[in-house]
Amino acid sequence: MLFVFRALYLTVHFLLVCCVALVVSLVRPFHRNNTRDLAGMMSWSLPLLGIQFEAQNASPLKAGEAVYIVNHQDVLDVFICTAMLPDNIAILGKTELRYIPVFGLAFWLAGNLYINRKNKAKAWDTMKSVARIVQKRRRAIYIFPEGTRSKGRGMLPFKSGAFALAIEAGLPIVPIVFSSTDKNIDLRKWHAGKAVGRFLEPVSTDGMGEEDVRRLADDCRERMINAVAELDADIAAAQANR
Description:
It is built from eight helices and seven strands. It is of the alpha/beta class and about 240 residues long. It has a single domain, classed as Glycerol-3-phosphate (1)-acyltransferase. It has a seven-stranded mixed β-sheet. The longest helix is centred in the last third of the chain and has 28 residues, at about 215-240. The chain is globular and about 50 Å long. It starts with a helix and ends with a helix. The model has no long low-confidence stretch (mean pLDDT about 90).
């Protein structure tokens, strides 16, 4: 019963935030902090979900331009990851999102970007176009490089788009990692569990070209896998010491 109540609550909370986001974004369209302020409202649901959240640090670049890459786990990402959005951020989302009523329009008006991921043959050209937009708006970009939710399968292989974008735009990559929700959170329990987030050190893309994309993606993925393991171990150790 508790799980059903929380699932219904999350649905209502999501819809309400989307409506508020649409209204605010109509008043101040494409504002540099629309996404941080409005998407951040999703994280307000965490106490009612029984989730204890800990942000271990803040972005090392503050409001600076960068490509932020984040591990993508499940539906709870919408409510957990939004608790650690940096300033001046825009999310890069798949084009299919634009057709979701209310959300699709609010997402765009908030200043976020859509990208067509289906045409792999033109992936580099697509990222060049996005890079020009990013440079013109002087924005930081937020991307889930796995491209889909891992759903407890561990961190999936990274797609190349985020890294091609960072190299083309000449921006550093800042990984953000969150502890494993499948291991540490159970919404059927009153105290559902704990989620921990951490910004990792920036990874420079200076001097890199298209030939470096795969190596850069693999290096960032390895760093993030190790960091997630550390966060999970910290949570497990804290629970064992209770």
